[in-house]
Amino acid sequence: MKVRFSIRGIDKVKAYLASVPRGTMRVALDAIARWLIGDSQGGLMHPEPYKYASRAKAYGYTGAKFENGARVPAGYFSAKQFFYVAAITHGFTDRGSKRTGESSDAWTYKPTETNKGYSYRLINDTPGAYYTRDDYGQAQQPANVGWLKVSKVVAKNIAGALRAARAAVNAYLKSKK
Fold this sequence. Notes:
Layout: H1 11-19, H2 25-39, H3 55-59, H4 79-88, H5 102-105, E1 108-114, E2 117-123, H6 127-133, H7 140-144, H8 150-176
Antiparallel strand pairs: 1-2
């Protein structure tokens, strides 16, 4: 599963990119991509602070039942899922954060040259990114604890990305004089 998103209507970015001096487009796009991924405090590589949210709060009672007819606790879609999660969490005794950072650290960008110029894609191929950040695949539990979707993170950081692009273009031009 790949995280995919598109941001439409970013007129400020389009206007800025149209105004950069010839030969500096790649420098500007590179700075924007780096900023959105991780140079900023709120970039995609920076996860939201840990906050616990129960499965019951996220999903409620689903109607699942055990073989004996008893109700499966709220938040589980089947008895099999309940026992699987119980085995993982040692009978619900260890509720601490088990974040590894693998999904957050996997953000990269890929520049591609096209007929019309350059295209930059922000990429994260980990399954965790799909369930925590994707605009369409984000699970309810990460949403409840405050994980922002990719498009929201990008929109929140676009002003900083533009400042980074301006600084990178200015530094590049200064180095070429």
